Amino acid sequence: GDSVTQMEGPVTLSEEAFLTINCTYTATGYPSLFWYVQYPGEGLQLLLKATKADDKGSNKGFEATYRKETTSFHLEKGSVQVSDSAVYFCALSDSFGNEKLTFGTGTRLTIIP
Amino acid sequence: DTAVSQTPKYLVTQMGNDKSIKCEQNLGHDTMYWYKQDSKKFLKIMFSYNNKELIINETVPNRFSPKSPDKAHLNLHINSLELGDSAVYFCASSQVFGEGGNTGELFFGEGSRLTVL
User: Fold this and answer.
1) Residue from the list A34, A49, A98 with its beta carbon closest to the beta carbon of B96
2) CA–CA distance from B35 to each of A10, A37, A69, A86 (Å)?
3) Among A34, A41, A101, whose Cβ lies nearest the Cβ of B45?
């Protein structure tokens, strides 16, 4: 079945550091790929997405590129802020139109001033 | 206006009890979901309903019974609660079918933290 593997956390960085959170996936067909973010005490919210190979999703300074050849969708940000502290989830949606999202295990990110 | 709202936000109960969590969305979406997030933050889909019809039913014990009285509501009833049911339960919605649908974006509620003692 479909699966998503994320780098284990927690990840702690200083403000303005460069961030990479790795995500790889296994899926049949042509999934769409997502990054969701969960701030403390809140539900998940979509951060960015890409629906086909070589697409780049971007939002709030975060970027991720859909790499079919390496089955990856790594999340990057050039300069993180304290407000980016949250749990980040990589996810895929199968290509069968039922919007069943398969999530990775989540990576907790803490940014220290 | 809260797009996806769940009640209660916190629920503490004894083993063996029966409890319900309610969810409502005002986004006009046709599909709603229940996800379970365990203590390690792992998220797993439980159920999905499209226009009151069950379309996804993962391997979930029969003690869990979803009910969708209309497409804006999806409630979760749990019978004979067990310690392992302690988790945060998230409701979500999305527009899957029809114009503008199938974007893959789910809108989540804030979660209902269930603690079984």
Assistant:
1) A98
2) 23, 15, 30, 19
3) A101
Backbone angles phi, psi at A90, to 5 degrees: -90, 145
* pLDDT < 50 regions, chain A: none
Other C-beta atoms lying within 10 Å of the C-beta of residue A57: 21
The 10s digit of each residue's pLDDT in A25-47 is 998 878 889 999 999 888 899 99
How many angstroms separate the CA atoms of A45 and B100, rounded? 19
Note whether B75 and B21 are within 8 A (CB): yes
Distance of CA A18 to the CA centre of its chain: 15
Nearest CA in chain A to B47: A100
CA distance A108 to A8: 8
With CB atoms and an 8 Å threshold, state whether B102 touches A89.
no
